[in-house]
Design brief:
By secondary structure, this protein is mainly β. Helices cover about 5% and strands about 60% of the residues. It is built from five helices and 53 strands. The strands form nine sheets. The chain has a 34-stranded antiparallel β-sheet that branches. A hairpin with a 5-residue loop joins strand 33 and strand 34.
Length: about 900
């Protein structure tokens, strides 16, 4: 959120250029970089963590960069990946298959509101024909005395002051003594077997403790999460076994220290000749990870330097088609305490140099000599690189690459050989890629060979380390040329992976993969895209890998068509693959009255606290005081997924241009059908898992399911006199929660009739009948099946443009037909509505309803709330007034009042006022 920004250039439209930029902002984002190992046949979601390993974060929209094997991906369902910013989860589409061999890197910024944070930036640039000079100043700092999401008392500040740079160990007790509150998860203190611990309790005489838990690692904590009906996550103490903790959580809070990061860079470039140049750049950084502490300050400041020169030399008198030599040399020094704002190296830098995950220390020095011979359609490049990391690492790399066209063959090669040494390990890392292709008739055929041979030798005993590996992949492919209106590509590949067995590398797995894609792009009114891939991973030696054999499919189909001049329009989408589903918990959080979705319906079980099964969707605005918040866990289950979407519209009016005779009658009809299904199952049978229409899936195999069907048949849809439509709809959903499954089903048929009898009188009528089902694995009182029927006629009188009166009546019948259920009701709702409108002044509306309900069962149950819709059996009254007043052309005032009088209760009044300004 910038609070000022300024750019100034005093030399417009000249050969000189100078720009000054100064800007500042209230910063909300924090940079993080995650390296994720792909999982075989798992498209995701993959969870992202914060820079300090925060588990639950919110990613700032559009800040992410996702790389797979060093290639940046494109966001979007039609491209490579999608991301849920709220849950920080990345899921890859079927266009980008993920296997155990994929290397995923995600760089992003996430919301960090632990402190008020400000950011300042200044830039100065100057450029002319010879010189280019630039300087940058960046400063980002937390206001340590303005914490936002955490309360720091003096004891917490002293803890942070003593922690120095060891902020990962700044754990603070997460136990508060509070008064009993039925809306919170509270604990009682227990003493047993020499341990003092806390136990979840609803007893108002002992539940006095509010606990905040943090993940401290497997077998490092004494608490585990358990399934419970409480409105929030509940933890249980587990006694240690042989003094070894059995949990992963502790009632502690990791304090977040305020930070400051600063960076100054100065650089210059000089063009010696039109074909030669030099450059130099220096940088200084200051990184204070704990503004509360004066300890460990020697490593806060660092510096970096890089410089180089480049030259282009003609090797032939032919300036167009002759050979040229492009040479360059670069030098780099990075102090071990230098801290960049974001990663400035190549995405795969650590892997290229075999650095691994070891915490190497020391200054970094690098040099790069590049010689590139080039002419049109011919490139040969050689690089000699060296990288040193203090006394811990020395590496030398030779790189040879080419892109050559000869006798219609296109040859692409890229090979490198790395020799590196460290006090513990010597490595030899050979990588090679060979790709040759040639046009054959109307397509291109090619062969690609790829190999990586990485041997890491233990210096102490001259043995091969377990992280050594070798893989060899061969691929053949066929693809269309660039001028074809139909794009296609077919690939067949086999990959051998070798792992360490004793002191040599032995074949561990073999993966066969076939993929195909075809896009028909010639007809703009009919576009079809199909892609499919099959992969079979076979394990040759189960002693060398823990990965099980896996067979996987990824399929995707998209079709858009406009047929017979718009008579039929169709959109079809199908996708099937593999992934994982996260077990979720949820809690209801109280918000500003009237701004939520849910209401607390009452203490169904009489335990004195608000349980999860005691919240319902609010019928009236004044009751909507809670929202449902999903709490992700760290538990995933591997699933097979399929998704199908279909929208089909039939509009005869678009085909029959001349509407006479029988054509006129047919053109009055239209129909639209939409169907969407999204399943995640545990089905092992691949063919069954591909089928989204399989109605015989065992409930035990169905993890989540969301299906929606809607068909609307309309007659005289565009007529202002008479029309009717019939809508058949079915919605089903099943959720995967830590305390079991929850499912809901709604099936109904809705018929609408409208008739403007004349200019004054109009009649509308709606009928609906259907079934509403609910099932919960944990809350048995949520199991019901309600059959319902309703009839609602409405008669309106509108003598002029400014006034309208409507008389309404609605009859509803509901009955729970679940096993051993007897609940049923009849509801009669009669009402009147008056509406006055003026173009200049606004709109005023008044309504009054009398609702008589006959119900045969107790009212303090979830089924009763569903059937009674928040009212009481007997006679209920509801009324309301609303006024929308235009005070001027740019200001509008809205006044709302609603009241109701359920049987046997006091009158409930609800009012609101809202002002709007239009600019």
């Amino acid at each position: 959120m910038p609070f000022f920004s300024s750019v100034y250039n005093p030399f417009p439209d000249t050969t000189k250029y100078m720009r000054t930029t100064v800007s500042g902002a209230i910063s909300k984002g924090k940079y993080a970089r995650n390296i994720i190992n792909g999982v075989e046949a798992n498209q995701g979601p993959y969870r992202l963590n914060g820079a300090e390993n925060e588990t639950f974060i919110i990613v700032l929209s559009g800040t992410e960069k996702v790389f797979v094997d060093g290639v940046e991906m494109v966001r979007g369902e039609q491209y490579d990946y999608v991301i849920d910013y709220n849950t920080a989860e990345v899921t890859f589409t079927t266009r980008r298959p993920i296997t155990k061999d994929k290397r995923i890197v995600v760089e992003f910024q996430y919301s960090d509101k632990n402190y008020s944070r400000t950011m300042l930036f200044a830039n100065q640039e100057y450029q002319d024909k010879k010189w280019s000079v630039k300087a940058n100043i960046f400063s980002e700092q937390d206001a340590k005395n303005q914490p936002l999401l955490q309360d720091l008392d003096e004891e917490a500040k002293r803890l942070l002051a003593a922690a120095g740079d060891s902020i990962q160990q700044a754990f603070y007790p997460g136990v508060d003594s509070v008064a009993f509150n039925s809306t919170e998860v509270l604990y009682a203190q227990r003493d047993s077997s020499g341990f003092t611990y806390y136990e979840y309790s609803t007893d108002s005489t002992e539940a006095y403790y509010r606990l905040r838990f943090s993940i401290v690692g497997a077998n490092k904590g004494n608490y585990i999460p358990i399934a419970a009906s409480a409105n929030g996550r509940v933890f249980q103490f587990v006694f240690p076994v042989n003094n070894i903790p059995q949990g992963s959580y502790e009632p502690v809070v990791l304090l977040v220290a305020p930070k400051q990061q600063q960076l100054i860079t100065v650089g210059a470039g000089y063009n010696i000749t039109p074909n030669s140049s030099v450059f130099v750049e220096t940088a200084w950084s200051n990184n204070n990870v704990n503004l509360f502490s004066e300890k460990d300050k020697a490593d806060d400041s660092g510096f970096a330097f890089r410089g180089g020169a480049s030259m282009l030399t003609k090797l032939s008198n032919d300036s167009v088609n002759g050979w040229r030599l492009r040479s360059a040399v670069k030098l780099e020094h990075v102090n071990k305490y230098f801290k960049p704002i974001e990663n400035f190296r190549a995405v795969e830098f650590s892997r290229d140099w075999n650095l691994g995950t070891a915490a190497l220390v020391g200054d970094e020095n690098a040099a790069d000599l590049s010689l590139q011979f080039e002419k049109p359609k011919q490139i040969l490049n050689y690089q000699l690189k060296t990288f040193l990391k203090g006394d811990d690492y020395q590496g030398l790399m030779n790189v040879l690459s080419s892109n050559v066209n000869f006798l219609k063959f296109n040859l692409i090669t890229n090979s490198s050989y790395l020799i590196s040494k460290s006090p513990l390990t010597d490595t030899r890392f050979l990588r090679s890629v060979f790709d040759v292709s040639r046009p054959v008739w109307r397509f291109i055929a090619g062969v690609r060979l790829e190999q990586e041979h990485n041997v890491l030798t233990d210096v102490a005993n001259d043995s091969i380390r377990l992280n050594s590996f070798l893989y060899d992949q061969r691929k053949i492919y066929f693809t269309s040329n660039d001028t074809s209106k139909t794009f296609f590509r077919i690939d067949f590949s086999r990959r051998y992976d070798y792992a360490v067995a004793g002191n040599y590398l032995k074949k561990s797995t073999v993966a066969d993969e076939a993929s195909a894609r075809i896009d028909f792009l010639g007809n703009p009114k009919s576009r079809l895209s199909i892609s499919s891939s099959y992969r079979n991973l076979a394990v040759r030696d189960s002693q060398l890998t823990a990965i099980p054999p896996e067979e996987s499919f990824l399929n995707r189909m998209e079709y858009n068509a406009t047929i017979l001049k718009g008579l039929i329009t169709s959109t079809t989408f199908f996708e099937a693959g593999t992934g994982q589903e996260l077990k979720k918990e949820y809690a209801y959080v109280e918000v500003t009255p009237g701004t939520g979705v849910y209401t607390y319906a009452g203490d169904y079980n009489g335990n004195g606290v608000k349980d999860l099964d005691e919240f319902e969707i609010a019928v009236f605005t004044d009751q909507a005081n809670f929202i449902k918040v999903f709490l992700p866990t760290n538990e995933y289950v591997k699933t097979r997924t399929n998704q199908f979407n279909q929208v089909l519209t039939i509009n005869p009016a678009a085909w029959f241009i001349e509407t006479k005779g029988w054509r006129s009658f047919v053109a009055r009809f239209s129909n639209q059908v939409s169907y969407r299904i999204d399943n995640k199952t545990l089905e092992k049978d691949v063919l069954k898992a591909l089928n989204p229409f399989d109605a015989n899936i065992d409930d035990s195999l169905l993890v989540t399911s969301n299906a929606a069907f809607r068909n609307t048949l309309s007659f005289n849809r565009n007529s202002t006199v008479f029309g009717l439509d019939a809508t058949l709809q079915s919605n089903t959903s099943k959720s995967f929660l830590t305390n079991g499954f929850e499912s809901r089903v709604l099936q109904s048929l809705v018929n609408n009739f409208r008739w403007n009898i004349n200019r004054i009188f109009s009649l509308q009528a709606t009928t609906e009948n259907g079934t509403r089902k609910s099932a919960s694995e944990f809350f048995s009182n949520r199991d019901y099946e309600i059959e319902f029927y309703s009839l609602e006629p409405k008669f309106s009188i509108q003598p002029g443009l400014s006034f309208r009166t409507s008389l309404t009546y609605e009859f509803k019948n509901k009955q729970n037909v679940a096993t051993n259920a007897t609940e049923k009701s009849d509801q009669h709702d009669g009402g009147i509505e008056l509406k006055f409108s003026s173009v200049k002044k606004g709109v005023a509306t008044a309504k009054f309803n009398v609702i008589i309900i006959d119900y045969n069962a107790p009212e303090n149950t979830p089924i009763a709330y569903e059937i009674l819709e928040g009212l009481k059996k007997g006679t209920n009254y509801t009324w309301g007034l609303s006024l929308q007043r235009n005070l001027s052309n740019s200001i509008q005032l809205n006044l709302n009042y609603e009241g109701r009088k359920p049987q046997g209760t006091n009158i409930i009044h609800t009012g609101g006022v809202q002002a709007r300004a239009f600019f």
